[in-house]
Amino acid sequence: MIDLAKPVIGPEEEAAVLEVLRSGQLSLGPTGPAFERRFAGRLGVAHACAVSSGTAGLHLALRAVGVQAGDEVVTSPFSFVASANAPLFEGARPVFADIDPRTLNLDPEAARAAVTERTTAVLPVHIFGFPADLPAFEAFGLPIVEDACEALGAVHADGTPVGGRGHPAVFGFYANKQMTTGEGGMVALADDAQAERMRSERNQGRAPDMGWLDHDRLGFNYRLTDLQAAIGLVQLDRLDGMLADRARVAGWYREALADLAAQRPLGLPCEDAGGDRRGWFVFVVQVPPDGPPRDTVIERLREQGVGCKPYLPAIHLMSSYRERFGHREGEFPVCEDVAARSVALPFHPALRQDEVGRVAEALTAALDGPI
Ligand SMILES: *Cc1c(COP(=O)(O)O)cnc(C)c1O
């Protein structure tokens, strides 16, 4: 079986974890702040706040920009469910708008049309590592929280790294991401007061000096352990190499799928354009509308030993969202069409060129089969 995703972990991570284990300081030690400083430096932001997951980071970031119960947050229906769930944690409502058919990111025009007097934040997602059109969203004049969980290494047209614009930008370190700490996340941001609030709220609402068990506000336990931070520091050392490996694998896919895509309307990840640069996270294709259904293609790929997944489903059509908000088919046609035809192919830094070739052959055979 060709793996869909696989982390790159070596003896350096093992040694780093052992060192923390032997130090006896497993959490709230010096490794967390060291990880944060390195991460913030990489993005050129004043603060990086380590958290237990990308989801936890989204929750704290929305609180930090002031989202409250009854508010609306405009966001993308084509994302991992966490970005839409985060406003719900605060009793706020995720308001969806359709996506751009090329980039698959939230469409700024559609998002603007979804803004009401109750909108208190916009939550764009850099889906599949392609930079969302932040300058367009910044023109709304509303607080922004960026879901950058899939976009480490991506760069905006103006040269700013994704996550480096100063809005709270949330990264995730689950094992399939560009870098991993097992579970974990980081919020990059510029504002001192927002950073102070997040650091307190991830740690039970405790005051920054921590000398006193005083909790001056509501908080959570969203801390990252020193064991995880130690893995994160080693992964940062590896990051440029892993990003380059992912980009190389993506290049092999483009080559291997070129003939197929010339013969049929197969959707491929959009090319970098206008200075926007993708930080490669997944390689997702859309099966042609006139061929075998996506789920049939997935079955055939799996029969041939190719790990793959329907990725991503439209959030507004998930049962909990339908039941809670009365969403139905037809609301966001671009998102629904893309979601219904998307397949994530095996993609990770150690994928070999011959494996990419086998995936391309299997995909060709799957699409050539009976409809
Ligand atoms: C991975 C991911 C998250 C965060 O996931 P966690 O598992 O909570 O770290 C959030 N949004 C998107 C788009 C993601 O891909």
Secondary-structure map:
Layout: H1 11-23, H2 31-43, E1 47-51, H3 54-64, E2 72-75, H4 82-89, E3 93-96, H5 108-114, E4 119-123, H6 134-138, E5 146-147, E6 169-172, E7 185-189, H7 192-201, H8 226-263, E8 283-286, H9 294-303, H10 319-325, H11 333-341, E9 342-345, H12 353-368
Parallel strand pairs: 2-3, 2-4, 5-6
Antiparallel strand pairs: 1-7, 6-7, 8-9
This protein binds pyridoxal-5'-phosphate.
Structure description:
Helix 4 links the parallel strand 2 and strand 3. Helix 1 packs antiparallel against helix 8, helix 2 packs parallel to helix 8 and helix 3 crosses helix 4. The chain is built from twelve helices and nine strands. It folds into two domains: 219 residues, Aspartate Aminotransferase, domain 2; 130 residues, Alpha-Beta Complex (Aspartate Aminotransferase, domain 1). It is globular, with a radius of gyration of 21 Å. Helix content is 40%, strand content 10%. With 371 residues, it is an alpha/beta fold. The strands form three sheets. It has a four-stranded mixed beta sheet. Strands 3-2-4 form a three-stranded parallel beta sheet, covered by helices on one side. The protein has a two-stranded antiparallel ribbon with strand order 8-9. It binds pyridoxal-5'-phosphate.
